[in-house]
Structures are given as C-alpha cells and as structure tokens.
Design a protein that fits this description.
heterodimer, A: 249 residues, alpha/beta, two-stranded antiparallel ribbon, 30% strand, B: 309 residues, globular
C-alpha cells in the first residue's frame, strides 16, 4: 500500500511568537521554522508501517512557499521515499490545502493519507477532515493507534472522555494525536541521503486548484495580559488568600 | 436566516459546552435551532428544548447516530444546511471531528475555535496557542463555526420548552464501524465543566504520585488535569491533557502543580479566574500567569494544602 503524508512548515513550537506592531500578523521573519509536531508524528507513523511491511512507498506532500522544501527534506531524511511540493506564495488556508491534496491523491492513488491533527500556528484542526470529505472517504481524526488489515483499518481515537475504537474502510484519511508514536531524530547520513531523493514541484494552477484564501484577517493583536500575581510564604497563607481574598474555596 | 447549533450529547443529556454554543449563536442575529442526532435520544432533545434561546429542536433518531461518527453526522447536517446562515458546534473533540467535513462539502472556510463575535461575519479566534488573537472575516454564503466554550457564558433555562420536530435521517454511509469505547471512569467532575481544576506536570515524577493530587481534588470537589509533559511521560491518559492540543479550560480556580508553564499548556488554562502555581523552580514561567504562587516542593506543599482545607 502506498501512503501519502502531508506536512506543514510552521514557526518552531518552542518559540514564543510576537505580534507585529502594525497588527497584520505575527513576526515570522528571521524566526526559526520547523515541521509541525503533529506532521512529524504522521511521517513517523508511515515509516513504522513501512518498516512493519504494511506500506510499500511513502510520498510526502507540502503546500506552501518554496521554503517548504526544507520541511520535505526533513521528512525524506526521516525515511519518506519521495516528496511533492505544491508551491504557492499565497497564504494557504485549510480548504485550499485540502483541495491541493485532493488533486495529488488523484494522481498518486494512495491507500491511506496520514496528516497531523492540527498545525500549531493557525490552530485550525481542519485539513484532514476536509480532505476526507472532498474525496468522499472515511476519516479517523485524532488517532493514537492504527492497524491496517484487509482493506480496512482498526483505529483508536482520542476523544474527550477517553478512547473510541473504530474500523474504517480504506482508502481513508487519518489524523495523528500525540500518543500515536514518538518521532525519530534525523541522522546526518540520512540527511545526506535525503538530498538525493526525488522532490517534485508543481503549481496549484497546473493541478487546477484555486488556493485563494477565503477568510480575511482584519487584525491580529496581543491577548489581554494577566495582572501580576504574588509570591506567598507558605501553604497557610495560600489557604487564607483563597478563602478571604479570591473567595474561590 | 436561522442558525443551526449541532448539539453534543450522550442520548440522555447535553454535554457541557452546548449551552455556551447556543449562547454564542444567540449573538449572531437569527432564530436558533438545535440539532440532536442520536439514537433513543428523546431525553437529550427535551433538554435542548429547554435551553434559553432555542426556537426549535430538530431530532434525527436512528441506530447509526448512536455514536457521533463524523461521516454520518456531516451527511445529516448537509441535508438541512441550505436553510441556515450559520452552522455552529462546540470546539470540543466532538465538533472538531465532523465540522470541517461540512465546510469542505459546502465549499466554505471553517472558522475554528472562536472566542468572540464581532458581527455575523466577523469573529475573534486565538492563534499560536493563544499568544495572538486574530479577527477574521468570512464572506462565504454559510459560516461553519466551532465555538471555544470558555469564550461564552452558558445560556440559561427557557421559560417554556421549544417545539421538537423530527427530521429524516440520511442513510448510513457505512464508512466506519463503531467497535467500542474505553471511557475514563471518574467520580470527579469533567475537566471542561469543573469549577476547580487541579493539574499536574512533569514535576509529579510518576503516575503513582498523581494520588496526592487526586486527594487534593477530592477535598476541593475538583477535576484532575495534566500538562502535555505529564501525558507524554505516560503518567496519565491523554484525555487529562489541558493545553493547545488538549482541552481548553477556564475554571474559577486552577491549581498548577509541578507544571513549568510551557506555552502550549498556558494556552489551555490562562483564562482561568484564579491561578495558583506550586513549583520548586523559582524561575518557572507558570508564575507569570499565576495569581498566587508558592516556591516549594510539591510533595510537601500538596499534602499540607489538602490537610489544611
């Protein structure tokens, strides 16, 4: 089975972003970028399934600016076989990503698409479910386990009160939750090898996909700050503050 | 045009957050309808009819709605979507799962996790783990929106119950088969509905050590949560997770124990009314958002706090 994995280039999750003074967005110039953590989990899952013999080829796809090639090279260094960049300078929103991926799915015919559940920049949590809908495929969002067998996959989903187990028909789109796996680190020899792996660049127009944004961002601002708190001497003082000042217990 | 709220429920009761979503819908200007899709879900439909602001309840009762499978739920909502200007659901695991399918099939953007409403087409939503607030405008014909439930006060009870109307179920897609649940059993309140939450982080050291937090939680009538680091370390299940990629909470009192205060954790709890932090590291970033903090060994401070309450 061929697997398609989508990856997004985002601001490194350990960086605290700053809102631009003109309120048009957050500062991303000269900020360290990285692969979205949930996309790393998606790549890792595909590699583990290939190592287990359930997957024959891993195609990794990104939709965005030319710099996304770095993110794709990281996925190749982890163990993906080849990469496709749908290159556009436009700010891509989830519906556009889903449409671009649908076009790639039509060309590649994978048996499974694995995506991160959420990107840590726009926090949308949409693209995987949207792709499943556009393809009219089953979906399993927020999975912590997947076992493919006989044209189906047994999945465990993280839901609010615990876990849900489903059997879904393949092909399908799944999105990864935190506990699915722990992604591997890339090694230097694998980074070198990844440079020789194929990376194809296509334009959205060539795929017949409209990637124009649908939502207009009118402004971006800092959230309200919390007032300064106080350091207390001991537990007795804490109990007194909670009872008499905050009146919450 | 009317506004549709897709209700989250367990066929008997509405889940926490539905009334907040109905309150958000009430700010959009239009009659609010609630959709209850379930199986033998009459009690849940009756509960929805009694929420203030609901003008009508639509019920689709069929065995394939017993659990909310994304494909079936999306197909049902799409069968009535053209009557509505907005379709809303809580931004919980429930709403996040199926709402993007609806948006994609309507060829509209989804506006995720809104924390404020400026007008019927303009919304405020947190981005970058809540480190920025974006005001976004949608010109799409139908607005598909998930609602951050801590952003809106819950709607109260209605003086009289709204009418309940049955709608025709859409055929089972057969895409997914429900195999079972493993639900966390707890006598404590749910995280998203709790008035008080006691959360532990990596500093707890082990899952076993969470017992001292549970003792404190039981004394306070609180829910128990955790940081992503504690979940990653395998101390507690994922559904305990409070943060950017876990649950978003805003209780009256949040007690953070052994939590350093990573950006992604703060994203899930910094709207709490009162925050208490207990950490032995005087430099822990959690202190920057805390109202009260103690620089102390949690293994000494927590049992002492439990004893003094």
């Amino acid at each position: 089975m061929k697997v398609l994995v989508a990856v997004k280039r985002v601001v490194d999750p350990n960086i605290k972003v700053r809102v631009k003074p003109d309120g048009t967005g957050v500062e991303t110039a000269n900020v360290k970028m990285a692969m979205n953590p949930f996309c790393e989990i998606a790549v890792e899952q595909a590699i583990r399934m290939k190592e287990a013999g359930a997957v024959t080829e891993i195609v990794v796809v990104s939709v965005g600016a030319a710099q996304c090639q770095e993110t794709l090279r990281t996925a190749l260094a982890m163990g993906a076989d080849r990469a496709i960049l749908v290159e556009t300078a436009v700010e891509v929103q989830p519906l556009a990503v889903a449409k671009a991926l649908k076009a790639i799915v039509a060309k590649e015919s994978p048996g499974l698409v694995i995506m991160g559940k959420q990107a840590i920049d726009d926090d949308c949590n949409q693209s995987g479910q949207m792709l499943a809908a556009l393809l009219n495929w089953p979906q399993a969002a927020f999975i912590s386990k997947i076992t493919p067998a006989d044209g189906r996959a047994e999945v465990t989903r993280e839901i609010d009160g615990g876990l849900e187990r489903l059997a879904i028909k393949l092909p399908a789109v799944v999105t990864t939750d935190l506990r699915l796996n722990e992604p591997r680190y890339v090694t230097l020899p694998n980074i070198m090898k990844a440079k020789k792996k194929p990376l194809e660049i296509v334009k959205p127009e060539a795929l017949g996909v409209d990637v124009a944004p649908r939502l207009t961002t009118l402004k971006v601002e800092e959230p309200p700050k919390r007032g300064a708190g106080v350091k207390l001497a001991d537990v007795a003082e804490l109990v007194a503050k909670l009872k008499n000042e905050a009146k919450v217990i | 045009m009317a506004i549709l709220v897709v209700a989250e429920h367990d066929n008997k009761q509405l889940r926490p957050g539905v009334t907040n979503t109905i309150a958000a819908a009430g700010k959009l200007g239009g009659e609010v309808h609630a959709l209850v899709a379930g199986h033998q879900c009459g009690d849940a439909a009756a509960a929805a009819a009694k929420v203030a602001g609901v003008a009508k309840v639509l019920v689709a009762d069929a065995p394939h709605y017993a659990v909310p499978l994304a494909e079936n739920l999306a197909a049902l909502v799409l069968s009535v979507a053209d009557k509505y200007s907005h379709i809303l659901a809580p931004a919980t695991g429930f709403g996040k799962n199926f709402m993007p399918r609806i948006a994609a099939q309507l060829d509209v953007a989804q506006i995720s996790d809104i924390s404020g409403i400026v007008s019927a087409d303009t919304f405020v939503r947190p981005i970058y783990a809540g480190n920025a607030l974006a005001t976004v405008q949608s010109k799409d014909k139908i607005k598909v929106v998930t609602v951050r439930i801590t952003g809106f006060d819950a709607a109260g009870a209605a003086a009289s119950a709204a009418p309940v109307e049955s709608i025709t179920p859409v055929a089972d897609t057969g895409f997914a088969e429900f195999k079972g649940h493993e639900l966390t059993k707890s006598s404590r309140p749910e995280l998203t509905a709790a008035r008080i939450i006691v959360s532990g982080g990596r500093g707890m050291g082990s899952g076993e050590n969470f017992k001292i937090l549970e003792a404190l939680a039981d004394k306070l009538g609180a829910a128990v949560g955790a940081s992503r680091a504690a979940v990653d370390s395998g101390f507690v299940p994922n559904d305990y997770q409070v943060g950017q990629t876990g649950k978003i909470v805003a209780p009256e009192l949040y007690v953070a124990v052994g939590i350093s205060g990573a950006i992604q954790h703060l994203a899930g709890m910094k709207d709490s009314k009162v925050i208490v932090a207990i950490n032995k590291d005087p430099e822990a970033p959690i202190f920057q958002v805390a109202n009260y903090w103690l620089v102390e060994d949690l293994f000494k401070a927590v049992p002492e706090l439990t004893a003094k309450l």
